[in-house]
# Entry
Amino acid sequence: MAFRQPIRDTSKMPLALTSSHTFPAVSVAAVLVFILLRLTILSPKARLRAHLARLPILNGSASGEEKRKAFLETAHQLYQAGYQKFKDEAYRMPTSDDVENVVIPPKFMRDLRTLPDSDLNFYPAAEKILESKYTGVLTDLSSVAYSVRAELTPALARLNPIVYDEVDHALKHDMPECTEWTPVPMYMTIAHMVAKITGRVFVGEGLCRSPEYLDNAINYAVDVHTAQVEVKRMSPLLRPFLAPRLASVRRLRRREAAAARFFEPLVQSRLDAERSGDPDWRAPDDMLSVLMRKSEGRGIVSAAEMAKIQLGIIFASVHTTSDMYDLAVRPEYMAPLREEIRGVLAAHGGEMTARGLQQMLKLDSFMKESLRLSPPLTTTFHRVVGRRGLALPNGQHVPPGATVELASRAIVSDPAWHQGDADPAVFDGLRHYRRRTRPGAGAADHARHQFVASHEQSLAFGYGRHACPGRFFAANELKMLLARLILEFDFKNADGSTERYPNIEIGPLIAPDEHKDLLFKRVKT
Ligand code: HEM
# Structure
């Protein structure tokens, strides 16, 4: 017998339930309520925000969008204000994202320095800074960090002549003749030279001088920065819809594909040579060989790994441009720097040896001062708190999932660290030189006040177990390049101004203005 539904008297039912669409209508409403709850009080972000609310906040009265705007435009001033206001306690800093960061006071730095990644995770925090979700920059490339630490840094003395050969090549080919004052677009010229020099050590002579490779490497790094800035400017709610459509983001996808096209044949030819059994074949002495060995015979060096290195390159080139902008308006440093560089070269038979580079104390000090006042980031030591949360010695608790950071730029300009020395707000190119050479200074002072130092008062390269492993290589490469530029050229601002070209700052990101030129004139020797 067929089952028949009882006939219902719909006239007595509430209006909403009488429709033939009753069931779907209820479901849709329930789903909407659920989505709303997920987006608000039930979402992990909302829960994190609720836990974070126990910590004090800077600029708490402003609206969400006002805070975002203030952060994008005046992050440095905000961190300075936070530094003054919350000397000894952690506080929340509203950023351009939808959850605040937690700024850790300097007095607890040492307690955090050696915590493992399970408690303070570098990679997700780096992904946030780099907007990896959209830029595609993979940050968990510990193999690159490991290879730089274990293979590149210990080999620096051996690699120096190779690096210097490329510095020489870059200067001869990328700088104009400059017999008269000649405008040079500093940012792109330096980016080109640094990409070439770094490329020589990472991918070898063949590829590093290829105009197509260089063009892709430099523009990749420039596009990462552009995309990063554009995404940070966007409202967090709109990012998933608008960010993938950004022209800079789409260009990045094309550049990744191009990078893979450069590396695949090179990797393949090295693998073929290795497998050929030729007893005379030696793997070239570069980082590509190291990374290939690290990938356990699979011979796969991904575009992403090379991308990571290219980011190191942009940091390095951005910093050299900063040095040049600082020097261009401080000609009084040229004579002492030239004297030092010439003296060291003479003592080392005209060679830029590793020992000689270490003896360029004034140049090292100038570079460190430039990095102190124009670091690539206003804050460093970005880490995401692990599942156990973070208990600070003063009883404050930072919940799991929160991003912590150090107000590094404010810390390194704290007058307390500079007692008895020049005003930390003023550029003093020999500040760190004096600290290394003052009467009674020992080996510890030498180490603490050098460009590559990473400790509680020297934070531009980060801090703790993930502090930049590329800094020793960067220091050598930058010193060689700067030394040659200082010896061979006079330079000044192209627009006739005598003030240092202002940096471009967006949120925590700081970069020299890429549109400014310097005038160069070759020195008669
Ligand atoms: C002046 C130039 C450079 C600056 C200012 C700089 C700065 C930084 C900073 C701030 C960090 C994050 C550290 C932290 O949060 O504790 C970092 C990480 C890193 N840097 Fe650099 N960097 C520079 C050059 C380079 C170069 C040339 C390379 C490659 C040879 C490189 C490779 C890396 C790597 C692989 C990491 C991640 C470390 C890890 O995963 O543990 N950097 N760098």
Remarks:
- The chain has 23 helices and twelve strands.
- The first helix runs from residue 15 to 18.
